[in-house]
């Protein structure tokens, strides 16, 4: 079977699955390029309101393919990064459904999503120093923003492996799912699917912008223009009419 990124667009959600079971979904240059293309197709499809990234069981993603990594220099590394960076830069809301090990570049892929949900077999492993290489792809920036400097140091410098329950406890994952991860991801995505797509994308852009602000008034200013645009859009008028009808029973 050829290693591939399987893609399905259904019910407003694009599900992208890394399917390379022989290597536990390790990212090759080809798979990273396929992932870039799959993310771009989801963004271009106006019926898609959210994107889910996952790996064919039992792993999420075992990292970069070792043969590819051994020969990589700057261009090669950036080509490996391209796959998970396409998720990080995605204009759509993104969910990583992590059912197994997310290692190295696979950890980066999970970190790149807006939200992570985990199955009981999930684990997050930095592994870079274990291989004798420096972290890359923005891993040190992403992990510190999510779990703080102490937990980030434990994972990065001391090789601490974070399991599913611990990931939820430290804020690395949103919740532990006992059942079907993809169905749970679809359920989580429902409000995004039901929202006006243009307002949804604008809200994600604003979240990114305000994350770096330190002043409340600057955040108010950042939000005012897109909020006014949404208030004058037909979608708001239609929803307001339905809400008033529901309240009055007419």
From TrEMBL:
Residues that span the membrane, as ranges: none
GO molecular function: enoyl-CoA hydratase activity
EC number: 4.2.1.17
InterPro entries tied to this protein: ClpP/crotonase-like_dom_sf, Enoyl-CoA_hydra/iso
Recorded superkingdom: Bacteria
SUPFAM superfamilies: ClpP/crotonase (SSF52096)
Keywords (A to Z) from UniProt: Lyase
Family recorded in the similarity comment: Belongs to the enoyl-CoA hydratase/isomerase family.
Protein name per the record: Enoyl-CoA hydratase
Organism: Amycolatopsis thailandensis
Taxonomic lineage from the root: Bacteria, Bacillati, Actinomycetota, Actinomycetes, Pseudonocardiales
